[in-house]
Amino acid sequence: MLRYPELSTLDVSVFFIFKKVYETNNVGIAAKELGFQSSKVSRSLTSLRNALDDELFYRRKSGLVPTATASKLYDNLSPALSLFTSAFDRIDSESSRSKKIIVHITPFLLSALSRRLKEECQQRKQDASDIVLLEGDENTSPNLLSGEADIVVSERPIYGRGVQHERIGQQESLFIIASKHHEVWSNTDIDSLRDLAKHRFLYQSREGFNDRIDPFESYCRDNNILPQEIYKVSSFCEWLANLSTGRYISFVGTKEVKDYTLQQGDFKAIAMSDDSINILHQSLMLPKFYLSYVDSMAEGERGRLLDTLRQLCTRLVSA
Q: What does pTM read for this prediction?
């Protein structure tokens, strides 16, 4: 039978509060360090006093002075509380290590990033096995805000409580791409936007950028040019499939995405001149990219993986 049966009815926080008061000799300081109201600390001490039928502390000018019972309780209780804390620390650590890092990334970058992520982590001696890459964009914000995603790479920042965002770059380059056997390559002035309008043009719709009108389509309208055909698709797979037919020409941004696309089929690509890019800029600015993530991603090993993704994405969008 327990000598002090009322002890079994006390919340475990009472013992942690007692330990902190014993170590600080001050209710106010203990409350501040624990993040509690002073009234909660006082109520907890009262509960423990009643259970042990002991005053526990005497008030003196120098602070609280423990009774003999309080000193004995502290000596016996401290090791147990330390074991209790370390057990949960290990659980948290193991849970953190085992939890997947869910990354939603704009389709424009997904394929190129997946190709480079493993080798980047190997160079940095990091474990990428817990990273899950999913297709997404700024419309994935509910997942980020609800905790179902950890990181979103998109063309718009995501705002919300517990979420941070930063701009990681802007697409600067642009390449003309088509089948190696497409007639566009026989032109002497391939870079002429007016001449490009003579060929069937394909583009992938991207939310917040060209989902309403593509810069090339806008250029044609502004200059009273009737293009042979402009065809819009909604995904990278559709874009790649239609480009593979040899029917269309298209534009692709960033060297990494261009290189990845060239590996997927019998394609050829050349860089567009700065003058032509600037003309397209007048219709619609080339897209900017943002990294949005939950606060917990900035800590420990997750923070290092976040930095790897940040630097890799920055290179992908700016190359």
A: 0.55
